[in-house]
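Researcher: Next sequence.
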Amino acid sequence: MSRFTLRRPTPAFVVSVIALMISLGGTSYAAFTLPKNSVGTKQLKNKAVTAGKLAPKAIALFKGRKGDRGPQGPQGVQGIQGVQGPVGPSNGYFAKSVTSAVSLPVPAGDYMVYAEASIGNSTSSPVQASCFLSANGTALSAQNGSNGVTIPLNPGNGEVSDEGVVHLSAAGTLENTCNGGTTFSDAITAIKVDTASP
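Model: Next structure:
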C-alpha cells in the first residue's frame, strides 16, 4: 500500500498562486492601493464629478466678477394727479404787537377769535382802559367796548381780553384796538373751524 506524503510547496508554486490571486482580484486591489496624485483627467469620465464632491472654495472659483451696471431705463409714465383733500377741522393764526392796535389777515372761513392786551398806567391816577375786537371793522360780539378795566395809578397794569366768532365769506382782517393807558402787548389768536356759532 502506497503512502501519501505532503511535500513542501516550491517557490515557483507560491509565486504562481499569488499571481493568480492578483489577477482575479486586481480591480479591488487597485481601488485601495492607488498612489497619491495618480488620478488625472484621463482617468475621470466626463461629468463624473458633481457639485456635492467639490469644496466650497472650489465652487467659488467658478463665480465671475460682477458686471457693470447697465444703462438706466426710460422714465415711466406720470401717474394720475391726486385730488385736493378736504380742509382739516382747524387751523390757527396768531399776531402780536407792542402798540395799542394789532391786525391779523386771515383767509375766508369760520373763526373763533380771542384777543388779549396788557395795558399799563404811568399816571398818578387810575385809568379806564378798553379794547375793541372786530373783523373788517365790524364788532365780533356785544362785549366789545364794554370790556374795560380800571388800571390803578402808577405803577399799575391790567389785562383786557375779549373773544368772538365770525364767518368771513372772503379773506379779511381781524383787529384788536385798545385805548386808555399805555399798551405794551396786544395779541389776537384766530382758530379756523368747520362751523362757528356764537
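Model: The CA atoms of residues 142 and 164 lie 9 Å apart. The chain is about 15% helix and 35% strand.
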